[in-house]
TrEMBL record:
One of its GO terms (molecular function) is small ribosomal subunit rRNA binding. Belongs to the bacterial ribosomal protein bS18 family. This is Small ribosomal subunit protein bS18m. Keywords: Ribonucleoprotein, Ribosomal protein. GO terms for cellular component: mitochondrial small ribosomal subunit. It comes from Cladophialophora psammophila CBS 110553.
Length: 172
């Protein structure tokens, strides 16, 4: 199946015809002009399929762009996907100071990765001021021992280490 870019529709598949009906009125007019009902339904289905494919493509294709079949794959589309960050700052919405929540492990753990790194503001959606405050609160909780320096509980890590040592034959 060949693919072709058109300036008005985006991506048009090779099996799609030149005359894709865009509205019910156009479909009725073309049906009256000698097109059978089956042909009109087929063209409408192709137009709907083309529209669905064009919606999935996140790269801004232009007429005349040269591309390989890999460019239409899901892996390539993920590279061009726009990452949406949260639009509202949770702490501003609740009018809460993040520094006062350093004792609350459940809140702090939302802003820490599994490896213990503080999440970037792109993924948290916090303003710069609140991002700095939540980072300070996390560091404070870790320093006081209220929160582990990595997300996994130390007992779980200990069990995993013992299991690894048993598998390798080294037991202490």
């Amino acid at each position: 199946m060949s693919a072709q870019l058109s300036s008005n529709l985006g991506l048009r598949l090779g099996r799609a015809s030149k005359y894709v009906a865009s509205s019910p009125l156009d479909q009725t007019f073309k049906r009256a002009a000698g097109m059978t009902v089956k042909e009109a339904e087929r063209r409408a289905a192709v137009a709907q399929e083309n529209h669905a494919i064009a919606r999935q493509l996140t790269r801004p294709w232009k007429a005349g762009d040269v591309y390989a079949p890999h460019d239409l794959s899901g892996a390539e589309a993920r590279k061009w996907r726009v990452k949406h960050r949260p639009t509202t700052d949770a702490f501003d919405a609740l009018s809460v100071n993040p520094l006062s929540l350093y004792k609350n492990f459940s809140v702090m753990s939302e802003y820490v990765t599994e490896m213990g790194r503080i999440r970037h503001s792109n993924s948290t959606g916090l303003r710069a001021v609140n991002q700095r405050k939540i980072a300070k609160a996390i560091r404070r909780a870790i320093a006081l021992g209220l929160m582990p320096s990595i997300h996994k509980h130390p007992e779980i890590i200990k069990e995993e280490m013992q299991g690894r040592m048993l598998n390798t034959g080294r037991v202490r």
